[in-house]
Design brief:
By secondary structure, this protein is α+β, with helices and mostly antiparallel strands. It is built from 6 helices and 9 strands. It has one domain: Glutaredoxin, CATH 3.40.30.10.
């Protein structure tokens, strides 16, 4: 994948974000919306487990980095990196870009150290606890 995400520390490729570990990429649809707040907050609570599993975690959306940073400030600091895919280039590569809304779907991707997708849910529903549990069951078994 050639697209880059804009982080607080500048543009980063997926390879740079993976940095020799597995990576969970959490796409949310839009900052300050109820379901996306639930989605981000749930993963925020599980940050100690993700760290214990030695997994880099990125939260991203097609919102601007400024909007995502404001969202983070309102929810309290996230224990993982935030990133903007403002033009949707990575979302398009991952086939989660809604061209009509000009936003990504809520989605979860897990990449191995070689930047290969080993898990994906391209229509993640934050209110569906079974989908959330499925992610952590997968992570604990790899």
């Amino acid at each position: 994948m050639n697209s880059k995400l804009l982080t607080i520390k500048g543009e980063k490729s997926l390879d740079e974000l993976i940095n020799g570990k597995k990576l969970i990429l959490i796409y949310f649809k839009e900052h300050h919306t109820p379901l996306c707040t639930i989605q981000v907050s749930a993963f925020k609570k599980e940050a100690p487990l993700l760290n214990a599993l030695n997994i880099n975690t990125i939260i991203a959306s097609t919102d601007s980095i400024k909007d995502i940073a404001n969202f983070q400030n309102d929810l309290g600091a996230f224990p993982f990196q935030i990133a903007s895919d403002f033009n949707g280039s990575l979302a398009k590569e991952l086939n989660i870009y809604d061209i009509n809304e000009k936003k990504s779907n809520r989605a979860i991707f897990i990449f191995n150290q070689k930047c290969e997708i080993i898990f994906k849910n391209t229509f993640y529903q934050p209110a569906n606890f079974d989908q959330f549990l499925e992610i952590f069951t997968f992570l604990e078994n790899i």
